[in-house]
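Support request, priority: normal
Reporter: lab tech (M.K.)
Component: structure prediction queue

Hi team, I submitted a job for Amino acid/amide ABC transporter ATP-binding protein 1, HAAT family from Noviherbaspirillum suwonense yesterday, and the status page still shows it as pending. I've pasted the exact input below so you can check whether something in the sequence is tripping the parser. The sequence length should be 273 residues. Please let me know if I need to resubmit or if it's stuck on your end.
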Amino acid sequence: MSAVLQETGVPPATARRTGEVILDLKKISLSFGGVKALTDISFDVREHEIRAIIGPNGAGKSSMLNVINGVYHPQQGEIVYRGVPRRGMNTYDAARSGIARTFQNIALFKGMTVLDNIMTGRNLKMKSNFLLQALYWGPAQREEMAHRREVEKVIDFLEIQHIRKTPVGRLPYGLQKRVELGRALAAQPEILLLDEPMAGMNVEEKQDMCRFILDVNDQFGTTIVLIEHDMGVVMDISDRVVVLDYGRKIADGTPDEVRSSQDVINAYLGVAH
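Reply from support: The job had stalled in the queue. We restarted it manually and it finished. Here are the results:
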């Protein structure tokens, strides 16, 4: 077990049980002009698993997340989500169907409080019209109170009660990353996409984030697709790992299988462990 996870008290990936395929990406190719970002990539994600995507900088990892949640539309290939082909799925469709994400660069509303930032994750679940919300009257008021209770549960889960009224811009980096995770969790996603959730963190902050990711997977049953450069963390918490290099898939399997792959060693890991 890596040093980051030694103090978390979480079970290893081998202790988890995964289900049927929930997301299937088939022969995905994506180009920007003459630049090929992804070439003929296929892999699937099983329900309740932690699925890692790794590779060197520029390998196409974030592009793949953007394909999954509808930011980019691949020129070739097919996305099958819960058995339904969704080649042209956009970001709204993805969010409505239960896919949420965090970003490599923090994308929070810095002048708003922690509570209000996390509340924005509930927007798609609100049914009252804009006028009632603006007036904060009747059904809209009751609905917002119900959503606020759900958000308070997320705040308690992430152990950030003490900063719930603090503007996000005043918080240290590690706590801002936790708030961004909270906003995604507020949407109660089936699949959570995490783009380098531990980038720039110290060891203690990484330990906290690992614990929360594993608890989200275990307690909420959320399926997680994760991009992360800390190989100790990836190999410890992931059920399966897909490896990209220059927009192509070079390996796919369990952490042990990927770790021993000569192609992965040559392209990314550098040495066999």
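Residues 139-157 form the longest helix (19 residues). Confidence is low (pLDDT under 50) at residues 128-135. Let us know if anything else looks off. Ticket resolved.
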